[in-house]
Amino acid sequence: MDPIAPGFDTSSTQIQDGRRSLDRENIPSPPILSRDGYTSAITSGEDDVQATRDAVFGYEEAKRLESLEHKLYSHRRYSQGSGSNRGSTVNSPRITATHPKTPTTRPTSISSLPRMDHLLPLQPLAENATTTDNTPGLQDVAHDFALPPAASGHFGLENAHTVTLDDEPEINLSKLDHQQTLSQQELRDLLSSFNKCLQLRDKYMACSLQRLGDNPRDYDGAFKGFAEDIGGVSGVRPDAYATLRKNTGTSGQHPSLQPAPQQFAKWDIYPRPPPPHWHWTAKPHPEQGGPIDDQPQLVSEEGDGDGFDFGHFEIPGAHEWHYHLDSKGVFQIYSTPVHDDNDSKPIFAVPTIRDYYVDLDYVLGVIADGPTKSFAYRRLKYLQGKWGMYTLLNEHKELQSMKAVPHRDFYNVRKVDTHVHHSSSMNQKHLLRFIKSKMKRSPNDIVIVRDGHPLTLAQVFESLNLTAYDLSIDTLDMHAHQDSFHRFDKFNLKYNPIGESRLREIFLKTDNYIGGRYLADLTKELMQDLEQSKYQNCEWRISIYGRSPDEWDKLAKWVIHHKLYSHNVRWLVQIPRLYNVYKMTGQVENFERIIRNVFEPLFEVTKDPSLHPELHVFLQRVIGFDSVDDESKTERRVYDKFPYPRIWETKQNPPYSYWVYYMYANMTSLNSWRRERGFNTFVLRPHCGEAGDPDHLSCAYLTSHSISHGILLRKVPALQYLFYLKQVGVAMSPLSNNALFLTYERNPLPEYFKTGLNVSLSTDDPLQFHFTKEPLLEEYSVAAHIYKFSQASLAELARNSVIQSGFEMEIKRHWLGQKWYLPGAAGNDINKTNVPDIRLAFRYHTLMEELQMITSGEPVQENSYTAGV
């Protein structure tokens, strides 16, 4: 006889149909603890039963119970397998599948796992995908990462049985259809909320003309736009492209991808980009017997040099439209002169601040919802795991395809530093060498006025008790590696050489006593370094403060007068959020004054470029706007409803969302007018998500082309998932974050990259964070070593940086391929990017699965990344 554990009444044990069952009525109640730690007597009716002296079963008793359970379970399985009558055993429930072909035992291989995709709106891509691809390894992508083939039957979850303590184990869950319907309805509502967030961003991008094809600069003669509205911020929208490919098939090209009727004249880039094959030569120095010329010369094989001549530009005349700043703080465009908001209706519609905050509140509500956060977190983890599987299975194929590409490697793929501040774009050694050279060659230059007395450069250093020999890297003290962590105030002081603001004014300002001549000379040296490298490019951010309306003209004349033009450089204008400082010093009376100072000169030059010819020419090299300041500052909301700018007269700085809206709204109106005139438009690329409130990221999601930093996305999984679905560009600077807000090993860059976000590497402030002459390569090098990025990953990061950048379409074609704007492998040219087609095919395939799930659309009917366009 099998041993029976103490406490069980063996007389109640019955044998029925060859199986043993226990009468649960005779199972004793659990022991009850008394104050002294022992159990008291348990009284049941008139019988007193002495309980054990321990609150738990002893080791021997527990083993006997475990043995008994195993025997009962084995006996049940044997009886079920022999076809005996269906009975019940306590604690040994039986789960059966309703589908006749579904096995009752566990599947023995992954390929035999039953399909569960009928529970989701998305069907696997691989089921309907064609197999006509000839690219090596792409078939393996679909095979390895699509869901397994459909089994002969479903798992039958809707008819599964639940484990209960009752003697009837076959309780069918199909009786609980109402509960299951609620679950499916919640899932549909969740996906619908995500889909609406995607549509909101599309609305704001279309209204502000920040998409591909909205900017006249995109029209290079070959690209002529699209016949339909399929353009996104970074190219053709993946979902729109998949639909076009589905409707067209693999043999033809959809009419929407055919050249549309020409909307704009071919954009003229001046100075002209260098030819495909050229070498850099510097003109001889005076010591070598030639005239000095800081401007480098790009020489082609024929020996034709490029230069800059302001007379080359044709300045258009005035336009018949008019502009007016309405009572809500937004410049509007009218066909006739107006003096009041009610005089006429604006030509272009701009989202109101009420609409903006309603949409922002909706996005904030979605990303704060508990089930939504859980869903997004699981999807992000799934995407990271899927990337791990891809790399394990296809890393060798990527390496083989890269080895087959002649000439191209990491060093000669184009890279763009999409986030670097101009006044700190040099390293400390370069600045030190420049200061020493000026002290030796130009000590008698009058550089500053103090207390009404002009001072020469030599006198300035005499007042500091310093000579050229005394200067060193340590003396400059501009690195932010030690004492700036979470101290943005100390970081700002690092912009002052030797801690002296007067030296910053002399060497690092465009508007000073010498007209920014020293900074212009330093800028030319930096441009020369970039042109020598040939493959490194940058987008320098230069400040417009909004304190006076003539700042734009001063900046434009500084660039034009010093001929600060380079094939490797474009500009962004950053607006510091310093209203509270200007208000305290009496420079502005309300927030509307800052809006006027920043945007009114741009509307003036758009209406009549002849009034500001230098500004008109300079704006052709300006990509967009940036909003900068310390995001970690606390934002206290003192208003239930934010006032309009003309009545924002308090000393408190407006919140981030308020700043971003008025930059977006006025840029939207300006872009509409400039596009109508055939002038280049602008994009919004603010600093966002470096510190402070994660809500800043929601503002940028709606209004911005791309962002800088974005490290706080790691705390908001739902918003990170939205950034992934819309492929919003994120220019990350791990070395900068390491010194200010987040240590290098905790930076989310590798996780973002694995997930599939559109991330790139940038330097931010080489003067404070880098040591070498090539800070961008330094950034790539450290990331490759710490995060173990492969050569293909570095090439993909470089490709992302070019896509995020604002360089002209003609240049991007040369750098990335003729149809770089198509998603997936269809837009890739490995001979230019060194990114394997199989990787971009995987990225596109994965993104499409997520988009189809969110939008509940039809699955991709073919491997659209395999077909040529």
UniProtKB/TrEMBL annotation:
Q: Name one GO cellular component term.
A: cytosol
Q: Which cofactor does it need?
A: Zn(2+)
Q: Which UniProt keywords apply?
A: Hydrolase, Metal-binding, Nucleotide metabolism, Zinc
Listed Polar residues bias regions: 79-112
Q: Which domain of life is it from?
A: Eukaryota
Q: In which pathway does it act?
A: Purine metabolism; IMP biosynthesis via salvage pathway; IMP from AMP: step 1/1
Question: Biased composition, Basic and acidic residues: where in the chain?
Answer: 17-26
User: Which GO BP annotation is one of this protein's?
Assistant: IMP salvage
Gene Ontology MF annotations: AMP deaminase activity; metal ion binding
CDD domains linked to this entry? AMPD
Q: Does the keyword Ligase apply?
A: no
Q: What is this protein called?
A: AMP deaminase
